[in-house]
Specification:
Butyryl-CoA Dehydrogenase, subunit A, domain 3; Nuclear Transport Factor 2, Chain: A
Length: 293
């Protein structure tokens, strides 16, 4: 019995890191938690007395579980944001107060894994995503990743390299100063509330892209260009009783409320003091239960 308690304690110590791996692999907080629980079941049924590095063993186990989950998504597209039909599917956001996340949430969103990067990860094949996430984000050696994929070490290295090029080519370069980003988001929020079209144009990049994921109940929206996005922002602001600055995946964002229920979560990509990307989750089935922030 004491051995089981010891194993459970060891697993709990690894749980935040495992959740971080699963979140990057799946883009879903609920599925990430399912993967963590399945990893625990695997551990509880396995004799690991000969395992020298339990953390590394658990990481490879959850990597394999996530890979199977990705492959079994029957409705999954290779490109989850196909602009030709206007469909938009955003990953789950991690929302915290401006004061900061709790330690476990900080681990999940560490290394600036913003919504924009998570969207790019969604465009990778399951094998590419596993190789990139485990190696580039968690420094798992290729010789440990290769058996999960059923590939050679050389082939796995090539997968990660291809994924890395795609990420570097698609993931937007963004400002890193939190205070500067917060000022930009605050200016956007103030202009939207006030219906100030010119002020919105000043804070939006001319080529800004706005994506809205409303799920199956609300039509998705994909808009391009400062004028179009500004008009939509003013219209949307009228429906939100109030909105608050928060952290979305560790960077300044906005949660809008209507009748004490979250109406939307906005994540911003900011470069050179202007908003280049705006990702909005409005799906009522996926909005987390948020209290007033």
């Amino acid at each position: 019995m004491s051995a089981n308690f010891f194993l459970a304690d060891r697993f709990e110590a690894e749980r935040p890191g495992l959740r971080a791996v699963a979140y990057r692999m799946l883009g879903s907080l609920a599925e990430a938690e399912d993967a963590v629980q399945e990893t625990w079941l695997k551990l509880s049924r396995t004799d690991v007395s000969g395992v020298k590095n339990l953390g590394a063993w658990l990481t490879t186990v959850i990597g394999r579980i996530c890979l199977d989950m990705l492959r079994s998504r029957t409705s999954r597209r290779e490109d989850p944001l196909p602009e030709q039909d206007g469909s938009v599917r955003l990953p789950d956001p991690v929302v915290t107060a401006l004061a900061g996340a709790d330690p476990e949430q900080e681990i999940v969103i560490a290394d600036s894994v913003g919504i924009a990067l998570m969207i790019v990860l969604e465009t990778l094949s399951p094998a590419e995503r596993l190789a990139f996430v485990l190696h580039d984000m968690f420094e798992v050696p290729f010789e440990h990743i290769a058996p999960i994929l059923g590939r050679t070490t050389v082939s796995t290295r090539q997968l990660a390299s291809r994924a890395r090029r795609r990420v570097q080519g698609a993931a937007p370069t963004a400002d890193t100063d939190p205070a500067r980003k917060r000022d930009v988001v605050d200016a956007f929020l103030t202009a939207s509330r006030g219906g100030d079209f010119e002020a919105l144009l000043a804070v939006l990049d001319p080529d800004v892209v706005a994506r809205s994921d409303g799920g199956t109940l609300v039509p998705s929206i994909l808009r391009r260009g400062a004028a179009d996005v500004a008009s939509q922002a003013i219209t949307f602001a009228r429906f939100a009783a109030d909105a608050h600055l928060v952290l979305v995946n560790g960077t300044p964002g906005v949660v809008s409320f209507a009748e004490d229920r979250p109406l939307s979560i906005m994540s911003f990509t900011i470069k050179d003091g202007r908003i280049t990307g705006l990702d909005i989750l409005t799906d009522p089935n996926r909005l987390p239960p948020l209290g007033r922030v």
